[in-house]
Design brief:
Blueprint lengths: L1 H12 L3 H7 L17 H11 L3 H5 L1
Length: about 60
């Protein structure tokens, strides 16, 4: 669910998940792994701040 919402946001912004990871100084594949395991609150907050949404947006 979180990964799908991030994929939607990156598509709307015209960026790749890989480039988002680089911009946020995440390791390669970090966000893709969120399809299998939950992210830390700190990393999810960085993504939320980048897109100007709340953490709750990803959890709805």
């Amino acid at each position: 669910m979180i990964l799908e919402k991030i994929e939607e946001l990156t598509k709307e912004q015209g960026i790749s998940i890989t480039s988002l990871e680089k911009k946020l100084s995440f390791g390669n594949g970090t966000i893709r792994n969120w399809g299998k395991c939950s992210p830390s609150i700190e990393k999810l907050k960085k993504v939320a701040d980048y897109f100007g949404v709340s953490i709750e947006y990803f959890l709805e």
